[in-house]
Sequence to fold (262 residues):
Amino acid sequence: MTRIALAQTNCVLGDKVGNLRRMEACLDKAEADIYVFAELFLTGYMCRDQLFKLAEHIDGRSVTRVAGMAEERECAIVFGMPTWNDDIRGLMHNSSVAVDPDGNVQVYDKVNLATFGPFEEQLYFAPGASPAMFELFGRKYGACICYDLFFPELTKAYALAGADAVLCISASPQTSREHFERILPARATENTMYALYTNQVGTQLNMVFFGGAQAYGPRGNLVTKAKYFEDDVVIVEVDQNELEIARRGRPTIKDTLSRPDF
Fold:
């Protein structure tokens, strides 16, 4: 069984050093194997043109600092940040980064960039090339960032590849809350896997983020939920026995594997 802390804390726009201090404070609030922070946690979400000054390469100062926290506490840390593409100069990604206590770094670049209504992600970011699974403490987690969750084929691909959970980091405002709280249990139920979600909280420019970090079990049941509009940390235990029970009772993964393509 793996203990995962879903941490929501009010980021300060552009304050990478301060936000890392806030991360470290959250690590001391609860004991867990894996700590998960929001989309673009390092910089805040509404940085706009500042992103070009704030983005880092994956071997940069901020990831090195997080690696030190993970090593010291013998835990893994997942968080969002803007990263530079190592192969094509000038391309920036909205990334989820996982760092384990041995210093290994895994990265997922957001594939589905939200560019509608108040969202402007395609003005700044290049889309990721493919999904990515994080392997942490011997288990697999499907990486997902906010708007990605609305594309069920992504979560299904993770389930078919053996993921125990989809791990969604988000920067979702209050206006989107109802949508997320509908599809999170759906993603869990249809794939008989855990759906874990953590969100930005507080106000950044014209955006009010609702927080509400939450986790659903592999039968779509709500396991835990954080407060709205306040800093909070909640714990979920990912239980492999629950996955096996759910998949015997509703064999969507087995039936997907056995059907012809259509």
Summary: The two ends are 36 Å apart (CA to CA).
